[in-house]
Write a structure and sequence with these properties.
16 helices, 9 strands, about 45% helix, binds coproporphyrinogen I
């Protein structure tokens, strides 16, 4: 049996090579807005059971690809698997989101953290990556991911989601050595985690710095940026055609695009508060760019979605000498459970059909 011809537009765009159309995938493309996701989750009993069972993680990873001609798959998992494997005990309180049984508030708490083994504690993630690659059979590339050190530390210190990040910001100001010790441990775990995902078959790697933007600039430059740069410098990517590009996504990373472009990462993911054309000009073609439609655009009717997608695509191309290469279309952040699958179909179709002015 011949393998079906693979769609590598996503990897080509990340390498800033010519592409016939701008590839598109969407953050949280597998999720509660899909009825088939809700059915699998109900069958699994919980989000964690689903994420920790490779067959179910594979099933939900593939669900959005069966509906829409997306150009990449993203591993179905969560960023909080790493702190869980370091010993914090992840659980989901009904209707409350993720929580940890134990938090990190002191140097002794940092020292008590475990060093997770990628083929024991986190084997379920690597097994999911291997299974998804097999099931995808080269149809589209698979993205692996991790939270950024700062973003993971937010959850580890706060014990769950937070409105104001009071505890970790107090630690940054009053006990910076403790926070740096935590970030040191987490950075090492993140690098090992991403490397293991690549070796298991992930073809691109994305770091989610979801909460970097809550920091004042001097604190971002002390507690988030240097660890992102360290990942970009130290993480092995492989060689030649097998090279897995690194995408640094950051919500609110607009002020730091020049510094992030100099990190050594192959691509930056940006939110919708910076125009793509401006981002392209400021990064000077040193990196590929991924983004950046406001997810709320998906609440608008299909014709408006198409207009806004065209605006973003044209804005990038105008700043890129008229060429679409070096751009991966995405939202500026993740999808929400109340979005309509038909509107996702309209967005993907609009991006693929776009041929520029
Ligand atoms: O009820 C459910 O089904 C659980 C909701 C859910 C989902 C669908 C959670 C809990 N995690 C996920 C999957 C997930 N998480 C993916 C899947 C791949 C994809 O399709 O994109 C990814 C990449 C993540 C990463 C993640 N988890 C981030 C970074 C990305 C982002 O959105 O900024 C963050 C911050 C988390 C933490 C998390 N996990 C889940 C929730 C509800 C949260 C947010 C908690 C909070 O801060 O309030």
């Amino acid at each position: 049996m011949n393998a079906p011809p693979g769609n590598d537009t996503f990897l080509r765009a990340l390498r800033r090579e010519p592409v016939p159309y701008t590839p598109v995938w969407l953050m949280r493309q597998a999720g509660r807005y899909l009825p088939e996701y809700r059915a699998t989750r109900a069958r699994a009993g919980s989000f964690l059971a689903m994420a920790k069972t490779p067959e179910l993680a594979c099933e939900v990873t593939l669900q959005p690809l069966a509906r829409f001609p997306l150009d990449a798959a993203i591993l179905f998992s969560d960023i909080l698997t790493v702190p869980d494997a370091m010993g914090l005990g992840l659980y989901f309180a009904e209707g409350e989101g993720p929580r940890f049984e134990r938090t990190v508030r002191s140097m002794a708490d940092v020292e008590a953290l475990g060093t997770p083994d990628m083929e024991t504690e986190l084997r379920y993630v690597m097994d999911a990556v291997r299974l998804i690659r097999r099931e995808l059979a080269g149809k589209v590339p698979l993205i692996g991911f991790s939270g950024s050190p700062w973003t993971l530390a937010c959850y580890m210190v706060e014990g769950g989601g937070s409105e104001n990040f009071a505890r970790i910001k107090a630690m940054a100001l009053e006990a910076p050595a403790t926070l740096h010790a935590l970030l040191r441990r987490v950075t090492d775990a993140v690098i090992a985690y991403l490397d293991a995902q690549r070796l298991a078959g992930a073809q691109a790697l994305q770091v989610f710095d979801t909460w970097g933007g809550v920091l004042a600039p001097h604190l971002y430059r002390e507690f988030s940026l240097p660890y992102l740069v360290e990942i970009a410098q130290r993480l092995p990517r492989g060689e030649g055609a097998a090279k897995a590009p690194l995408i640094l996504f950051g919500k609110g990373n607009g002020p730091y695009l020049e510094e992030l472009a100099a990190s050594g990462a192959e691509a930056l993911g940006i939110d919708w508060t910076v125009a793509l054309g401006e981002a392209r000009r400021r990064t000077g073609g040193r990196v590929a760019l991924q983004g950046n439609l406001d997810p709320a655009t998906l609440y608008a009717p299909p014709a408006v979605i198409a207009r806004e997608a065209a605006r973003a695509l044209d804005d990038y191309a105008a700043a890129n000498g008229g060429a679409r290469e070096g751009h991966v279309f995405n939202l500026g952040h993740g999808m929400s459970p109340d979005m309509a699958p038909e509107h996702v179909a309209a967005l993907v179709e609009a991006v693929h059909a776009h041929r520029g002015r």
